[in-house]
Input
Amino acid sequence: MPGTLWAIAEAGPDGHLTKLSAEVATLVRGLGAAAGRDVAGVVVGTPDAVAALAGELAAYLPRVVAVEAAAAATSPIAALAAQGALQAMGADPNASIFMGNFPDGRDTAGLLMAALGVGVISNAGGVTWNSGPVAEKGVFGGRLVTTSSFADGHGIVTVPLGSVPAEAAASAGVVETIVLVGAAPAVTVLERVSEAAGAVQIEEAKVIVSGGRGVGGPEGFAILDSLAEALGGAVGASRAAVDAGWIPYSRQVGQTGKIVKPEVYIALGISGAVQHKVGMQGAHTIVAVNTDPDAPIAEFADLFVIGNLFEVVPALVAELAARKA
Ligand SMILES: Cc1cc2nc3c(=O)[nH]c(=O)nc-3n(C[C@H](O)[C@H](O)[C@H](O)COP(=O)(O)OP(=O)(O)OC[C@H]3O[C@@H](n4cnc5c(N)ncnc54)[C@H](O)[C@@H]3O)c2cc1C
Output
């Protein structure tokens, strides 16, 4: 049916559907019901892996197109996702397309924008339907909320984590399989480097223990690791810590990092600059430890501890261990 709403999904490092993709699929299903439009999903992967991934996506959508792409093992996935989505969608000038606002999703959105000549609303935290997608998003570091829609009622929307809870449909959808045609992307992936085995990704974590310049160096992050481990959480960081090379960029929270929504965010030695705040202000509870009573983070933390993180964190870890014993 013309004007189908599409969800482009992706696999995580474990090969399974990401939580964000499940959320995007749930959002699209809800919008389709509100709009009276067909909804569908598309996922691209190697022939041996894509069927299982499509099956996971079909738990959320009535129709999923699995795009087999032999090049998926050696090509940037965003390029293949865009190519695969164009093939799966066919000619549908009124289609709207949704994907996660993570690096691959953003790249895919840019490629589809160029290919289709439509607009993109990025990082849309709340999406509803009124003759087309209507998106709310925070701008100027979250100081303002704007409401945007497409002039001609359709376009591309990227969605951050936590916009809607992922909820499977009452019954699983059907999966169609197609084979990607056309040349492989000109760029070849030479190497994929996985983060340390067992490291919890910040975008999926319920608890994030985040360190800033106050952590003082890479060795300082070891005590953050111990607290994250005690709480079953993940370690995040401010840009100052990432720029200093103390922790990888994949851990950066903020405007130019990741936007996270954990239940608890523990900011250690982080001042609370607006570019950091915009990435973590959606946390349910914010705890901050800082030696400076006037640090900006005091204004929006739910619990603000004036203290030295090198004293507070070991004491907290010891208390947690004592309670578990
Ligand atoms: C375009 C742009 C994009 C940006 N994007 C991001 C982004 O995505 N994410 C991000 O984080 N930043 C981002 N920034 C940078 C941002 O403006 C801040 O510079 C950065 O967040 C500061 O990091 P910080 O809080 O770790 O360091 P600082 O501001 O230097 O704060 C360190 C804090 O540690 C405290 N401290 C020191 N020692 C201790 C101790 N022993 N115990 C407890 N507390 C201690 C200090 O009192 C201080 O409050 C961006 C900036 C720009 C211009």
In short: The first helix runs from residue 19 to 35. The radius of gyration is 21 Å.
